[in-house]
Amino acid sequence: MQPLFFSTQADRVALARQRYFEEGQLPSGVVSEAVFQSWARCQRQKQDPHAWLEFQSVTTSRAQLALQKNRLLRDAWLADVGEINVVLWATNCGAMLTDPSGVLIGATSSRRVHEKITPIAHRIGVNFAEEAVGTTAPGIVTRTGKQVCVQGAEHYFESVNFMHCAAAPVRDMHGNLAGVLDMSSEGIAFNFDAASVEGLYASSIENRLLISQSTEHLIVRFQISLAMMDTPMAGLIGVDMLGRIVWRNAAASRLLGLPPDGEPTGSGKAGYLVKDNIDLDSIY
Question: Where is the domain boundary, 167, 187, 211?
Fold first, then answer.
């Protein structure tokens, strides 16, 4: 007999998962809407949640192409990966970066002897798209462009239900998804606010990417405190030769009271709002 009450969220998710996949009961209020919608998409693709998940690499040529096409994004990652390694040293977590299609283009080294999946999964060229590996945090972000956490039994495939991951988007100067930063832990739940940490480093990588893409723009950096000017929380805007703002990062949008660049459209389709040109004088 099933117990009437469960003391942990993990128990509640496990029960909701069982009832959904075996009985068709919706997991309302137990898993996030993002996770549920991902489960539904995977089901429509006829993926078997009980099957063993194989992390297959894409072809060598496609992996090399992904590295070449995303050189600026990878350079931005490499500038931060040393610090990310230091921050994650005392945790059970690793980090990885994918391109916008979900192909892995960078990962921290695996140092934990208990890990079985991570060394296999964190290889250049492995495809983390939802169609390839089911419900995972990076897979959802590639589909939705929104930050998300997927923990334990929230993963679609049972064989990776001991993974915990949090992922955030990295956007380019056009507001389009440029990549996904993911932090994951194998077998051990997060014991810190993983979403905040990976969100911070996603912002740092994004800022570096925006600056590297803006060879013909004046970069304006601002914040309410000088102490925050050289941090990922600094507001950045790119200004063209006519004095118009052509891009802005999320921190700048918040400081200026503007909607975020790359905000999904109201149509529900995969796409992003086209940015308006804004006169720089208008914000003062």
Answer: 211
Q: Are residues 279 and 153 in the same domain?
A: no
* Short-list 194, 210, 195, 191, CA closest to 248: 210
197 and 232 belong to one structural domain: no
The first and second tokens of residue 76, run together, are 């931005």
284 residues of the chain, pLDDT tens digit each:
445 455 688 889 999 999 999 999 999 889 999 999 999 999 999 999 999 999 887 788 888 999 999 999 999 999 999 999 999 988 889 999 999 999 999 999 776 778 889 989 999 999 999 999 999 999 999 999 999 999 999 999 999 999 999 999 999 999 999 999 999 999 999 999 999 999 999 999 999 999 999 999 999 999 999 999 999 999 999 999 999 999 999 999 999 998 876 553 333 333 223 344 555 554 44
What three-state secondary structure class fits 45? Answer: coil
In a domain, 126, yes or no: yes
Distance, in Å, from the CA atom of 137 to the CA atom of 199, rounded to the nearest integer, reads 13
Residues 142 and 177 both lie in one domain: yes
Contacts of 88 by beta carbon, 8 Å cutoff, 6+ apart:
94, 95, 108, 183
- Domain-embedded: residue 263: yes
